[in-house]
Design goal:
This protein has about 500 residues and is mainly α. Helices cover about 70% and strands about 0% of the residues. It has 22 helices and two strands. InterPro entries: LPLAT_7/PORCN-like, MBOAT_fam.
Length: about 500
């Protein structure tokens, strides 16, 4: 396999002998090697370039240069796209008016990402699961658009359900901007984060209370003068990475998702065994994402970034920018619970830039934006179209049926078991096109299932009434909008 994918690797070939020995594609070997190097550099960065020893300027410069080096090693000259996308967006931010800055910047950033995705997919390597250069661009897109919305809201006092401490009141310099987008800790796999949180990390103020209401409270006030160590969090997450990688390498070839469309399998296997195989094949696929996201989180923590406060027992929490909660995913009893624990920072980005701002059908608009952000494979759009109906149906069931099971603990347990089974099947059914990518195999899979879950979800949505969550939230927000506007502006003035 390694020799077959060598030609598609656009980065360094220094590790080609290692790729041949372990029989893994060179681009994946380069990615893991760079992340291990980034982990070592993160420890060095935290100890020797601590905010107490050096200036924010030096920390910005070093973080940016290391990030560009990792990008060049993994992607070669394709990493110039990171600079092009960031430079175009920064130009829009500087030269466009404040009123429409966020809209223009969003269009330019997303447009450049989609153009690169089209080129990569339909010109270079359709259907290849390679560590391609558009992966980091997806994270950079999130960072740029998040920051520009935070700047717009911070300067115009726009009311959205956005936490006040995320609002920006000044434009970043070019160095700060590039450091935020392309630092070595998140250049390859993210995760995205708030610009204010990143700035606080660089300046060494990230251990101060992030919420004003907790400034004198027991949770943060007791420990606000102590800088916690991320050692335990990093070790724990590295252990999770090792376990996830071992599970993935052991099971990914034994339980391929593509086998669900095999004619002999479909014709000769009973339906209940097809359901079991579908669940197990998706269960075997998820550890790959657990490994990538948890390793990225550990790298940021090792550098001192990601501290979010203290537990009630006084132990530090390092989950500010965590992207996954594994138990929350595997034990999810609802579609929403699964989504809330999967790719967490992307879900927050979609919520802040789309769901909370879209006036018409925000659920469908959010799924559409998610599909566009992921890429141009048709399977992505089939997955998110199916996900829209699944979300609406799950919301209707929870609203109408769940109250009847809350009368006792035993009824609640029965409800949780049933909804866990239903959620895992629904998620697996929904995500198949996301893995198969092409229209033909995806429709072949759904046809073999007679589109049963699509039909059930549509019937549920039509039969069970449910109030719009956005409408309920909107009624409450309208009552407090005037007070919130004054409070937000006053808090931002104090912060300035």
């Amino acid at each position: 396999m390694a020799t077959q994918t060598t030609a598609s690797c656009t980065g360094s070939t220094l590790l080609q002998p290692l790729s041949d020995i372990i029989n893994l594609p060179l681009d994946q070997v380069n990615f893991v090697a760079c992340q291990v190097f980034a982990l070592l550099m993160a420890v060095w960065f935290r100890i020797y370039l601590h905010p107490s020893k050096t200036s924010p300027f030096i920390r910005h410069v070093v973080a940016t240069l290391l990030g560009f080096y990792l990008a060049l090693f993994c992607f070669g000259w394709y990493s110039l796209h990171f600079l092009m996308q960031s430079g175009l967006s920064y130009g829009v931010m500087v030269f466009s008016g404040l009123e429409h800055m966020h809209k223009y910047c969003f269009i330019v950033t997303m447009g450049y990402l989609i153009l690169c995705q089209i080129t990569r997919v339909y010109v270079f390597d359709y259907g290849m699961y390679s560590a391609d250069f558009t992966g980091p661009m997806m994270v950079i897109t999130q960072k740029i658009t998040s920051m520009v919305f935070e700047i717009h809201d911070g300067k115009t006092c726009v009311i959205v359900p956005l936490t006040v401490y995320l609002l920006c009141v000044r434009m970043p310099s070019l160095l700060e901007y590039l450091s935020y987008n392309c630092n070595f800790m998140g250049i390859l796999a993210g995760p995205t984060c708030s610009y204010n949180d990143y700035t606080a990390f660089i300046e060494g103020t990230c251990y101060q209370p992030r919420h004003q209401e907790n400034a004198n409270g027991k949770e943060n006030g007791k420990h606000q003068q102590i800088e916690p160590s991320p050692k335990n969090a990093v070790i724990s997450k590295l252990c999770t990475c090792a376990i996830s990688l071992a599970i993935y390498l052991s099971l990914c070839r034994v339980l391929p998702v593509e086998y669900t469309t095999n004619d002999d399998f479909v014709n000769s296997t009973p339906l209940h065994l097809q359901v079991v195989y579908l669940y197990l094949s998706m269960l075997a696929l998820r550890p790959k994402y657990y490994f990538v996201w948890t390793l990225a989180d550990a790298i940021n923590n090792a550098a001192g970034f990601g501290f979010s406060g203290y537990n009630k027992d006084g132990s530090p929490q390092w989950d500010l920018i965590s992207n996954v909660r594994i138990l929350g995913i595997e034990l999810a009893t609802s579609f929403k619970m699964f989504i809330d624990n999967w790719n967490i920072q992307t879900a927050l980005w979609l919520k802040r830039v789309c769901y909370e701002r879209c006036p018409i059908n925000p659920t469908a608009a959010t799924f559409l934006l998610s599909a566009m952000w992921h890429g141009v494979y048709p399977g992505y759009y089939l997955t998110f179209l199916t996900g829209t109906t699944m979300t609406m149906a799950a919301r209707a069931i929870r609203h109408n049926i769940r109250p009847y099971f809350l009368v006792s603990d035993s009824y609640k347990l029965i409800y949780d078991v049933i909804t866990w089974i239903g959620t895992q099947i629904a998620i697996s059914y929904t995500v198949v096109p996301f893995v198969l990518l092409a229209v033909g195999p995806s429709l072949k899979f759904y046809t073999s299932w007679y589109f049963c879950l699509h039909i059930v979800c549509l019937l549920v949505v039509l039969a069970l009434p449910v109030k719009s969550r956005r409408r309920q939230e909107g009624l409450h927000d309208n009552q407090t909008e005037h007070n919130s506007t004054d409070n937000n502006c006053n808090q931002k003035d104090k912060a300035t």
